[in-house]
């Protein structure tokens, strides 16, 4: 049963892609959750999953714990996801059970008497990333009319809308939104040209709403490396990687070492605090992850980002353009040359703080009703 509402408190629900073992995905929703909670909102994370038959769920649950087997990778995925449970519980304590159907989602919105609902960030508007969930849920088809509906830093993950069979329904659903904000410039173009809304706003990814101190408080005690360190966080190894690694080590100087974080074939996956510390303690970062790029910026690291168009190039390009970091992007297949000029983080920080303030204001204005201002 939902706890009684405290006087003056407003309630908001959050929906993002299923968390799985995605470090950036978990951190971006944790940042949004804590940003809102820090401003007095009662926040609930809505967890979703595919609607499977009872026998399928029972079999999957058994395979997760059955020793000496890893059929279809179920046990290893379960172990990897379980490594993040403590972090999720600590930083997002108020969350639903896994909800599989629209009636369950709608009932939970009603039961919690939500004032607003936010979908985002990450590639929530890319159909192939719905992973068995109802794709229309990410356009808040289950949220009642009287609840404010907002997207925050939602991403299509590509520069065009390819789900033409869904265009009429998505147009209708987006028409119900009180505010639409997106993470990429191309997202603004899609929302305007395909769905007829020319009032969307470009905002920062939620991870960038929070200062470095928020993440530094998550780090577990550890000794810093005693030699210059290159940190690699690369999801899809490519030919350019070896050349860039050699160049970065040469730039760091004699005695420098290369370390990596890998998601596959690990006996024990890195925890989120360990993942964060790897970025925090590095002297140079080589990554093809959008959130790897984001945390390089948050921790003021020298870095280059390999842009893989299959995973989505626009998110890299949009953020780099906003912060004047276009020279840090290396397109896969276009050759590899390490930029030699260090990033001027004093200049970057000025722009970042301005964009952060603007993004915060857009979000808080979207949440307020006509009678109350949360900015005062």
Into how many domains do the coordinates divide? Answer: 2
Helix content: 25-40%
Top-tier CATH class of the largest domain: Alpha Beta
The multimeric state of the shown protein is single chain
What general outline do the C-alpha atoms trace?
globular
Number of helices, where a helix is a run of at least 4 consecutive DSSP H or I residues = 13
Describe this structure in words.
This protein is α/β, with parallel strands linked by helices. The chain has 2 domains: 10-210 and 354-367, 3-Deoxy-D-manno-octulosonic-acid transferase, N-terminal domain (Rossmann fold, 3-Layer(aba) Sandwich), CATH 3.40.50; 212-343, Rossmann fold (3-Layer(aba) Sandwich), CATH 3.40.50. Helix content is 38%, strand content 15%. It contains 13 helices and 12 strands. It has helices at 23-37, 54-65, 74-82, 85-91, 102-112, 167-174, 185-195, 212-216, 240-252, 272-281, 290-298, 314-323, 345-367, and strands at 10-15, 41-48, 95-99, 116-119, 148-154, 179-182, 201-202, 229-233, 257-260, 284-287, 302-307, 329-331. It has a 7-stranded parallel beta sheet, sandwiched between helices. α2 (54-65) crosses α3 (74-82). The radius of gyration is 21 Å and the shape is globular. 37% of the residues are buried.
Task: Describe how the helices and strands are arranged.
Blueprint: E1 10-15, H1 23-37, E2 41-48, H2 54-65, H3 74-82, H4 85-91, E3 95-99, H5 102-112, E4 116-119, E5 148-154, H6 167-174, E6 179-182, H7 185-195, E7 201-202, H8 212-216, E8 229-233, H9 240-252, E9 257-260, H10 272-281, E10 284-287, H11 290-298, E11 302-307, H12 314-323, E12 329-331, H13 345-367
Parallel strand pairs: 1-2, 1-4, 2-3, 4-5, 5-6, 6-7, 8-9, 8-10, 10-11, 11-12
Helix pairs in contact: 2-3
């Amino acid at each position: 049963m939902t706890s009684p509402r405290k006087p003056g408190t407003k309630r908001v629900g959050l929906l993002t892609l299923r968390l799985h073992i995605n470090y950036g995905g978990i951190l971006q929703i944790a940042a949004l959750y804590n940003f809102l909670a820090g401003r007095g909102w009662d926040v609930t994370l809505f967890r979703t999953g595919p609607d499977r038959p009872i026998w399928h769920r029972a079999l999957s649950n058994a395979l997760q714990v059955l020793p000496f087997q890893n059929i279809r990778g179920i046990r290893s995925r379960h172990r990897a996801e379980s490594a993040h449970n403590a972090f999720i519980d600590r930083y997002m304590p108020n969350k639903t059970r896994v909800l599989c159907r629209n009636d369950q989602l709608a009932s939970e919105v009603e039961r919690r008497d939500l004032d607003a609902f936010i979908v985002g960030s990450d590639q929530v508007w890319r159909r192939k990333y719905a992973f068995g969930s109802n794709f229309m849920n990410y356009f808040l088809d289950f949220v009642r009319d009287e609840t404010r509906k907002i997207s925050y830093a939602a991403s299509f993950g590509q520069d065009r809308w390819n789900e033409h069979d869904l265009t009429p329904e998505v147009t209708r659903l987006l028409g119900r939104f009180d505010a639409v904000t997106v993470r990429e410039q191309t997202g603004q173009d899609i929302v305007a040209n395909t769905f007829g809304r020319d009032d969307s706003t470009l905002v920062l990814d939620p991870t960038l709403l929070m200062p470095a101190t928020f993440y530094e408080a998550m780090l577990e005690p550890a000794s810093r490396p005693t030699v210059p360190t290159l940190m690699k966080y690369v999801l899809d190894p490519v030919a350019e990687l070896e050349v860039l690694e050699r160049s970065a080590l040469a730039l760091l100087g004699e005695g420098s070492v290369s370390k990596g974080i890998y998601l596959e074939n690990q006996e024990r996956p890195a925890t989120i605090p360990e993942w964060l510390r790897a970025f925090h303690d590095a002297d140079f970062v080589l990554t093809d992850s959008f959130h790897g790029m984001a945390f390089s910026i948050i921790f003021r690291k020298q870095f280059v980002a390999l842009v893989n168009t299959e995973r989505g190039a626009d998110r890299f390009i949009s953020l780099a353009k906003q912060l004047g970091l276009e020279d840090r992007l290396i397109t896969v297949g276009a050759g590899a040359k390490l930029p030699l000029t260090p990033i001027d983080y004093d200049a970057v920080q000025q722009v970042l703080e301005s964009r952060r303030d603007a993004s915060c204001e857009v979000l808080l204005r979207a949440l307020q009703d006509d009678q109350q201002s949360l900015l005062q």
